[in-house]
Design a protein that fits this description.
single chain, alpha+beta, about 30% helix
Length: about 350
C-alpha cells in the first residue's frame, strides 16, 4: 500500500512538473533577459554608450527615430544608474533654453528641490542600439498654496519636469504641474477661451499669448521662445513643401489658417485639437523634415497642450495632470511621467 502511494505521488509529481515546466522556463528566461538588460544598462555611462551606431546630430537622431518607428521598430525606456550634480543640471538647462546665464532660467519661484534622472531609449529588438540618452530634470517650487493638516501648515509645490538630451542639451519636452488651477484665477481669466469648444476662440487666445511674457507658465520665456528651443535643431532639414507633412485625420482636429506668426513658415501644418469634456486643448505644429534614409521625409510634431484640470475630480484625472505641456510629441508618448493627453488622431 505504501509502495502504491509513493508511486501515485511520483506520477502526480511528474504530471505537475510537465504542466509547469514551460511556465518556469519562460519565467526564468524573462528573468535572465531582464537581468541582462538591467546589467547592460546599469553599466552604461555617458561616455561608454557613444558607440559607432549612436547618432550625434540632434535632428538626424530624432528623424531617424521617427523613420524607424514608421518601419515598425519598437523603442523602450530604461533608467540609468547615474546621478547628476547641480552644476551639471544647470549646464543642461542653460543649453536647452539657449541661455548663457548659469541659473534656473525657466523658474521664477523659490525652488524647493531639484533632481535629475538619466535614461536610455533603446531598440527593443537590439538592446545595444541606443537612440537617445536623456535626462529628466524635476524641479519642485514652493507654491503660494498652503495646505492645512493636523500638524499645521504644509507647503504645496508646483513642479516642472524637463526632458533634455544628456549629450547636447536639446530640449525635447517639458511639463508644468500646478498646486492649484491657475486658469480659474481672476488674473488669468483671459486664458479661459483656450478651453471653449470653439477652435477659432482657442486659436485666437493662443496667438495672443504665445509672444507674451506671462507668469502663468512660471517661466522667463514666452511660449514662442519654448517652441523655438524645440525646433532650432531642425532648421537645416525642414522641408517647406506642406504636401510632405502627414496630416492629422480625426474629428477633434481642426486645421487653422493664420498661424504664420507662430511657425514663421507657411509650410508648417497647424491646427487645434479640442477635447471638450476633459477641458484639454492641444496645438500641434507639424513640419516635414528630411531623413538620411534614401531621401525620405517624416513629420515632426511639436505640440503645446493646456489642461484645465477640475481639481474637485482629482481621483478621476490624477494629481499630476500636466497643466501646460510643450515639446516634441513623440517624447511625451515615451515618458508617461508627463501625463500628456494623447490626442485621438488616426
Amino acid at each position: 500500500m505504501i509502495h502504491r502511494l509513493k508511486y501515485l505521488f511520483f506520477m502526480i509529481g511528474i504530471i505537475l512538473l510537465a504542466l509547469t515546466a514551460s511556465i518556469f522556463l519562460f519565467t526564468f528566461q524573462d528573468r535572465i533577459d531582464n537581468q541582462t538588460l538591467y546589467a547592460e544598462n546599469q553599466d552604461l555611462s555617458i561616455s561608454s554608450i557613444l558607440t559607432n551606431n549612436y547618432i550625434e546630430d540632434d535632428a538626424e537622431r530624432y528623424t531617424t527615430f521617427l523613420y524607424n518607428q514608421s518601419q515598425h521598430v519598437k523603442y523602450a525606456v530604461v533608467e540609468l544608474d547615474s546621478t547628476l550634480s547641480e552644476e551639471e543640471v544647470l549646464e543642461l538647462l542653460a543649453a536647452a533654453f539657449l541661455n548663457e546665464k548659469d541659473d534656473f532660467v525657466v523658474i521664477t519661484q523659490e525652488i524647493a528641490s531639484v533632481s535629475g534622472t538619466q535614461y536610455a531609449v533603446y531598440n527593443t529588438e537590439d538592446h545595444s542600439d541606443i537612440m537617445f540618452l536623456l535626462t529628466l530634470i524635476t524641479i519642485d517650487m514652493y507654491s503660494n498654496q498652503v495646505e492645512m493638516s493636523d500638524s499645521g501648515e504644509q507647503y504645496r509645490y508646483d513642479t516642472a519636469k524637463i526632458l533634455i538630451d544628456s549629450q547636447t542639451g536639446m530640449l525635447y519636452f517639458m511639463g508644468i504641474y500646478y498646486a492649484h488651477n491657475y486658469y480659474e484665477d481672476d488674473d488669468y481669466g483671459e486664458y479661459g477661451d483656450l478651453f471653449l469648444n470653439d477652435p477659432d476662440a482657442a486659436a485666437s487666445a493662443f496667438l495672443n499669448m504665445i509672444s507674451n511674457q506671462t507668469s502663468v507658465f512660471d517661466t522667463d520665456l514666452s511660449c514662442m521662445n519654448l517652441i523655438e528651443c524645440c525646433l532650432t535643431p531642425f532648421q537645416d532639414v525642414i522641408v517647406g513643401d506642406v504636401s510632405y507633412v502627414e496630416d492629422r485625420k480625426d474629428s477633434t482636429y481642426v486645421p487653422m489658417d493664420g498661424y504664420a506668426d507662430l511657425t514663421q513658415d507657411s509650410g508648417f501644418l497647424t491646427g487645434v485639437e479640442l477635447t471638450g469634456f476633459q477641458l484639454a486643448t492641444t496645438f500641434p505644429i507639424g513640419f516635414a523634415a528630411r531623413t538620411d534614409n534614401e531621401d525620405t521625409y517624416v513629420t515632426v510634431f511639436c505640440t503645446v497642450q493646456f489642461n484645465k484640470l477640475d481639481y474637485s475630480q482629482k481621483s478621476t484625472f490624477g494629481p499630476y495632470q500636466c497643466d501646460f505641456c510643450i515639446g516634441l510629441e513623440e517624447m511625451a508618448y515615451l515618458f508617461g511621467e508627463f501625463n500628456y493627453r494623447k490626442p485621438s488622431v488616426g
